[in-house]
Design brief:
Layout: E1 45-49, H1 54-65, E2 69-74, H2 79-93, E3 97-101, H3 107-120, E4 126-129, H4 145-166, E5 175-179, H5 183-186, H6 192-212, E6 218-224, H7 231-235, H8 238-242, H9 256-267, E7 278-281
Parallel strand pairs: 1-2, 1-4, 2-3, 4-5, 5-6, 6-7
Helix pairs in contact: 1-2, 1-9, 3-4, 4-6
Length: 289
């Protein structure tokens, strides 16, 4: 008899407006594991964009579990999710969690956000570039210049701007982790512009890793497959939400706490000889690169 998969959630038909709020999802995403950490990031100062919910929240919690101080950059519309994340980190792990609201689609806001964090932490050990949007369409003709510009600005330009602002605060041994996607490798007929940005992030990661190697700063990426995050009910119709992830070899969507360990690994000294690489957390899809 086939055993049931304890991670296989039943997603109810649901729809939200962008950017999506985690506390309104059903079921709620799984963002932490109850086991104690191993202090792999003890005392390290980390920045996570969109760390209020989804994969970002799971990463923020996982970093705190490993002893890190966390700064979360998030959209003001997601204040409730951000407050929950901060409270959870403080009460569960007794770590600092700084909340910095900012619209990363503007370079000036990226610089200001980093300045606020710099006032508290003089150095940054880990930067996780995790902000991203997508707007499904059925054809290329439906992608307006407005949509194309927003998708590239949030997904790609913001990574350049944030990284540029954070680099002066980094030192030998620091780590940059960029969130790309399985769509960078297999494409997506309904997410053409989004997939293009994720391909750009792969190239950015590899190029920046070569550029910063002499400084001892590692640059890697994580390419998630279908994960249960607020972006899903905020992007797709109700019917598609109910089948999210069922087309993977594991026949289910992943949970944020199943992706977060990849970020912990790349952030800590266990990955000291790894740079310019992408870890694929995608439910078994075979990709090249």
């Amino acid at each position: 008899m086939q055993k049931s998969n304890p991670k296989k959630a039943v997603f109810k038909p649901q729809k939200q407006k962008q950017p999506g709020l985690e506390h309104k999802m059903s079921p709620l995403p799984e963002f932490f594991v109850p086991e104690p950490g191993c202090e792999k990031l003890h005392g390290k100062n980390c920045i996570i964009t969109v760390g209020d919910s989804g994969i970002g929240r799971a990463v923020a919690v996982a970093f705190a579990r490993e002893g890190a101080n966390v700064s979360i950059i998030y959209l003001k519309a997601e204040q409730e999710d951000a407050e929950f994340t901060r409270q959870f980190i403080r009460e569960t792990y007794d770590r600092e969690c700084l909340l910095v609201p900012a619209d990363l689609s503007k370079e000036a806001n990226c610089i200001k956000a980093v300045s606020k964090i710099k006032a508290l932490y003089k150095t940054i050990d880990v930067l996780v570039n995790n902000a991203g949007v997508h707007y499904p369409v059925e054809s290329l003709e439906e992608i307006t210049t407005e949509q194309l510009t927003e998708t590239f600005t949030v997904n790609v330009f913001a990574q350049f701007w944030l990284t540029k602002a954070v680099l002066p605060l980094m030192r030998k041994g620091s780590s940059i982790i960029n969130t790309t996607s399985v769509t960078a490798y297999r494409g997506s007929g309904g997410l053409i512009d989004y997939s293009a940005t994720k391909g750009a992030i792969v190239s950015f990661t590899r190029s920046l890793s070569a550029n910063l190697a002499d400084k001892g700063i590692r640059v890697n990426g994580v390419a998630p497959g279908p994960i249960w995050t607020p972006l899903i009910p905020a992007s797709f119709d109700k019917k598609k939400v109910t089948t999210h992830g069922t087309d993977t070899p594991l026949k289910r969507a992943g949970q944020p706490n199943e992706v977060a360990p990849a970020y912990v690994f790349l952030a800590c000294d266990d990955a000291s000889y790894i740079t310019g690489q992408i870890i694929h957390v995608n439910g078994g899809e075979i990709v090249n690169g």
